[in-house]
Amino acid sequence: MKNLKFEELNLSDEILKAIGNKGYEEATPIQAQSIPYIMEGRDIIGQAQTGTGKTAAFGIPILEKLNQGEKTVQGIVLCPTRELAIQVAEEIRELAKFKRGVEVLPIYGGQPIDRQIKALKRKPQIIVGTPGRVMDHMNRGTLKIDKVRMVVLDEADEMLDMGFIDDIVTILKVVPEERQTMLFSATMPKPILELTKRFQKDPKHVMVVHKELTVPKVEQVYFEVKEKTKLEVLSRLIDMYNPKLSLVFCNTKRKVDELVAELQGRGYFADGLHGDMKQVQRDRVMSKFRSGAVDVLVATDVAARGIDVDDIEAVFNYDLPQDEEDYVHRIGRTARAGRGGRAFTFVVGREIFKLRDIQRYAKAKITLQKAPSSEDVEEVRTNLFLDKVIEIMDEDDLSQYVSIIERLAGEDYTSIEIAAALLKMAVGNKDKEVQHEETDFNDTGAEDGMVRLFINIGRNQKIRPGDIVGGIAGETGIPGKLIGSIDIYDKYTFVEVPREYAGDVIRIMKDNQIKGRRINIEPANAKH
Ligand code: ADP
Ligand code: MG
Fold it and tell me: How many domains does the chain have?
């Protein structure tokens, strides 16, 4: 699928400016295909994998179709979790940045209802909410939806998984008939198709499918990182493997500029390439990269298209690509002309699902690796350095330096100590340790890879498994299907969650509520 420029989509200057501000270069396929239909007023079923930009696919046309002067709720977006509601509202708000007087409000469970009621009185035009909380406000009469003209069911498959179907049906029945109904989902199970039959009018089904591609033979690994540790991990990997040339991919122009500045600040010969640059500028950067004067090139997918340089020994997915096909294109930039190559991919939190999609699509083996510690870097660098030392001792005339060392060695130092100090200066790692936020959990009696948590409510409080899944998934944003076994006793409950989320789950759920009850939550003891 050919990507489109946003300029080709007949958008207003305000929106184009906001898109430019966000650093998006091209519309993703789902955006390019959905936006024109939504602008026409058609109902739509948009199907594309996570991370493909579905939010802007409906956010942009909703903003374009909004009546800015009218202070009533005109658009409602339903999302499965509070985290998504916040994210989606934020993205729409940013897209609306240059549209005057547009208010976007997220409403979700867990936030004090009074505060939301107050915010609703300010008459936002777009509401982004979880179905339960939206219904709650409708019932209280604090949210009037009789003027709503556009409804979005976002991540519809997840909303169904989480048992929101009845709420969704109730809401859709109340929204005026002459509305536009948009449904976005990564998958289209039967209940969703039934929902579309019942509530949509002649919907246009837009599906982003992928063509098969050959995947180059490249060693592919990924690292689970935090956004703020990416730079450190990238630096370490470059130091460690010392690739002749590296190509680093970011998803936006802004990210490219930021990362180039950060890398240059750390002393790397880095430069950037993106769609905003003039052809002369690009040519200049490319010729420096070819000659090795720049050995770390940071680029967007668009700008990197057509780069054909043989000595790229490493490709970094600093941002996970938007699209599975992009992944294959990216890693195909290395290991050219029969040379070896490595591809390193950074994955943050939920992006692991997206990586699994990529893996399936690319039929690639992408293995998890631990981010290198400063000791790992130091060890590899020391070995490389010592190789060079041996080479110099074998080949060069060192007499001039020998006399200096002899002089120093006469003053209370051994030549071993002097050599050690020089080695430390040459390769010693002065950088700070990457901060690991992940807490170690002792054995909690859970399955491998999971942590068992204790929650102080149970059967006596009429707690059912759905309450636990809904509560945790809704508050923390982890997909319900990742939550493992649940054992409910009279006064307490055990629930298993994936190890990498356990810390976040505890932090967010602590003193939070499940079924209206304030809970305590902590790692379980193995012997329970
Ligand atoms: P989805 O809903 O399909 O999972 P999102 O709408 O959450 O995807 O978008 C995923 C990420 O991609 C977000 O960080 C978003 O800002 C970014 N994004 C969206 N559209 C574009 C684009 N055209 N170019 C670059 N990045 C984009
Ligand atoms: Mg989404």
Answer: 4
